[in-house]
Amino acid sequence: MIIINRSVEKRYNQYSRHLQETFNCKVYKVTIDAGFSCPNRDGEISKNGCIFCDSGGSFSQAHSSLLPVEKQLEESISRLKERFGAEKFISYFQAFSNTYAPVETLKSLYDRSLSHPDVVGLSIGTRPDCVDEEKIRLISSYTKDYLVWAEYGLQTVHNRTLELINRGHEFEDFVKAVEITKNRGIKICAHVIIGLPGETRQDMLQTAKILAEMGIDGVKLHLLCVLKDTELEKMYNQGRVQLLSMGEYVEVVCDFLEQLPPSTTIHRIAGNGLKKILVAPQWLCEKFKVLNMIDRELEKRVSCQGKLYNKA
Ligand code: SF4
Questions:
Q1: What are the domain boundaries of the chain?
Q2: Which of 16, 207, 270, 305 has its CA 20 to 30 A from that of 194?
Q3: Which tens digits make up the pLDDT trace of 226-244?
Q4: CA neighbor of 263 nearest in space, from 8, 12, 1
């Protein structure tokens, strides 16, 4: 029997719906750029960065780090309240690697991001090789009073792809990060890129299956897209990279959702906001069309998130 997820409109466990149910009001994430760097860009690991990463820290929609954290929060919160009637907020450290600094610096920035009375949670985007016991202890200390997420950029479980995209870490680093983060009150979200060079549909589903086995709390899916001034742009212009069509992406996303446990929260399955720096595919800007197609595809399959979870 197929159990449609709690959301009446969606056949997957939408994070926004999950937040609304948890806090009983509209909760939005507020992106913060705290001026962090990344070891895969500053020379610690490499100076080139991941092949898809642009100078803004890839996929980041955060503010300019020239503004103090409090000011960034204040501006975004008043805009989100006015525009969407949002009531509570999660401080989201998004750009670059937001645990890549001494623990005292991290504490000061996280504390400041929680100073606004309407902030109920903290989400920290980072690389899995940028956390250690001390940093996790600090992050865990916020779980008494706040909803806390560690968002790890994994992208894929396949080391050959991680090498190809110059990620600078291996799947095993993600496993270690999960081990020290689990059972500390911190929820774990894995960021995954669909359509990475050289990956088959089976490879992508393998990533879903492994995340399901590991009991990851949340997943954020990105489509591989080409941004201006990246290594990927060069490869794309040389014809060395094939991008997925909208239909292919929709199918893989539905396959992916079927493999995950019904309880995994889906933080994102369609992107937006990249128009100015997007080279291809242009259909990425049609977020609502993509979301509708995913709904229709799951309906057509008479399927939902978790349908194939734990099935051989
Ligand atoms: S880890 Fe993130 S910020 Fe660093 S190079 Fe890769 S995508 Fe960019």
A1: 15-300
A2: 16
A3: 999 999 999 999 999 999 9
A4: 12
